[in-house]
Specification:
Arc Repressor Mutant, subunit A, single chain, 10 helices, 64% helix, two-stranded antiparallel sheet, DnaD_N, mainly alpha
Length: 206
Amino acid sequence: MKTGNVNIPLMLLQVYSILKLSDLEAMLIIQLIAYTSQEDKEFPTVEEIQARLSSSQEQVIKALQKLLKDQWIAIEERIDPISGIQYERYDLDGVLIKLSEYISDEMRKQNLIKKKDEPKEGKDIFSIIEREFARPLTPMELEMVTNWLDKDQYKEELILAALKEAVFAGKVHFNYLDRILLEWSRNRVFTVEQAKEHSQKFRQNR
């Protein structure tokens, strides 16, 4: 029996029940992390896993099937480059993806709450963009706008100026908006007036 330490994501222990994992499913993930990271066993058998748990083999199989179905884990087929023998291994990238998605979702919720608590003009930008797009913004788009404001430190009026440019160009989509803001940032355009001047020069040079 090997000894040592296993690195378990703290977030997994904190939120697995929120993410609808049972105690058994969470323990299975922990056991698979131990097997693959510390015990050089990339595809332990059901019998080996069950021997460490108080659950029956049938319960372990059902829990593994659910983890596979919900994409917490995956089974990969690989070929040994030396022997040419095909083998299977557990891929646990889904665990990190699920936890990252949870963190992103929580950040988005917090940002939305923050925006609701700010003065009215601080949240109007979302409704203005939605009005121009003629649809509600997706979670990814909401996060992008929040990043423009908080991470990139773009002023609201500059984002709205970029939106006007996009409407004028007939290219009302987020990738185009992002390109405009990035172009302005590279050219040290920080105000609406500077943006107008930059756009006029751009059109004249076309």
